[in-house]
Amino acid sequence: AQTVTQSQPEMSVQEAETVTLSCTYDTSESDYYLFWYKQPPSRQMILVIRQEAYKQQNATENRFSVNFQKAAKSFSLKISDSQLGDAAMYFCAYRSNNDMRFGAGTRLTVKP
Amino acid sequence: NAGVTQTPKFRVLKTGQSMTLLCAQDMNHEYMYWYRQDPGMGLRLIHYSVGEGTTAKGEVPDGYNVSRLKKQNFLLGLESAAPSQTSVYFCASSYWDSPNTGELFFGEGSRLTVL
Asked: A58: which DSSP letter?
């Protein structure tokens, strides 16, 4: 079964600085999607960024970018110019066929 | 535009009681999912459905049943609730076909407490 591992239960960053959240996954599939979701205290799950495995170019969405290393099965999220509103739980997710699996999450704190 | 709606949002049960969580989506999605979220464990897939009349087991299906009688609704049932089922439950739905790239759309969650 596919597994997703987030090795950092908690991370902290100073406002305006850059932080990187780590994610690794295990799969035997060649075609899949990877996602980062944000969950603020409101509990709503919000899509931050997605990456298709067949694309070599790393996805970017404004201040959010990923470092996708397919051979290493690594998918890290970089948040640039961190803002107070970025404070949340961040979940890495893997999807192939009908199944979507999540990591345990990283709680990000942003210090003013 | 409602998206994915879960009812109820909160519920307290006694051990052994039964209940049903309802998920409704208005986006004509084929795929629907039920997850549970527990501290330190992320979201774990309970059951899912790839279309009306179909269901399949996920990672943690024991103690739960589901039904997808209508395309827009996905029901999660607890026949005999146990304290271990205390959790926050999320419903999600999605397309699969390109160019929608499989993103899941989530409901707001339902907090269930079993005493």
From this structure: P
Integer CA distances (angstroms), B47 to A70, B35, B62, B79, in order: 28, 7, 10, 15
The single-letter code of the amino acid at B99 is P
pLDDT tens per residue across all 115 residues of chain B: 679 999 999 999 999 999 999 999 999 999 999 999 998 888 999 999 989 999 999 999 999 999 999 999 999 999 999 999 999 999 999 886 644 567 889 999 999 999 9
**Residue B27 contacts A where some CB pair is shorter than 8 Å:** no
| Short-list B44, B69, B68, CA closest to B58 | B44
Model confidence pLDDT, tens digit, residues A62-79: 999 999 999 999 999 999
B99/B78 Cα distance (integer angstroms): 36
CA distance A1 to A99: 10
Q: Is A44 on the interface with B (CB under 8 A)?
A: yes
CB pairs under 8 A between A and B: 55
Q: Closest by alpha carbon to B40, among A6, A73, A100, A1?
A: A6
Q: How close A50 comes to chain B (CA, Å)? A: 8
Contact assessment for residue A74 and residue A92, using Cβ atoms and an 8 Å cutoff: no
